[in-house]
Amino acid sequence: MNAEEYIAKVLTERNLTLAVVETTTGGLISSRLTSVPGSSKFYLIGLIAYSKSSKTTSLKINQDLLDKFGAVSEDVAMAMAHQIRALTNVDIGLAETGIAGPIQGRSAKPIGTAFIAINMNGVSYVEEIKCSGTRNEIREEICRQALKMLINKLDPQ
What we know:
Number of helices: 6
Order of helices and strands: HEHEHHHEEEH
Mean pLDDT: 93
CATH class: Alpha Beta
Largest sheet: 5 strands, mixed
CATH architecture: Alpha-Beta Complex
Distance between the termini: 18 Å
CATH superfamily: CinA-like
Strand order of the largest sheet: 2-1-3-4-5
Helix content: 40-55%
Strand content: 15-25%
Oligomer: single chain
Low-confidence stretches: none
């Protein structure tokens, strides 16, 4: 059983719902989750908030938070996970924000830096990850790590 099938099984058995907001992965996480037959039982919505402005308009992230910490930060990832959960009334909000390159862009953080956040039961969890490789390899790794983190939070060992 792969990660998305396991997540689908657990969420369905527990009657839990999920919303996902992605930046760097551009929908990869949502694609993997919705590839599982019956995903409509747990997967309610996915949002790609690629730009800073989409984070403020669609997710209602405070502009001051973005200005202070940057779009690729622990604080913004946690706010994204909280907001997608609150705005969609789901049980679990999953968010990721990062830098895939190959161009550095405006962030001072190195290419391959990402933050993954989960908000569930009123608590936010966040992890910083460092990836290497091509743009697509970095995006795929962020997706894998997001699914792994979700599994770990659903079934803490």
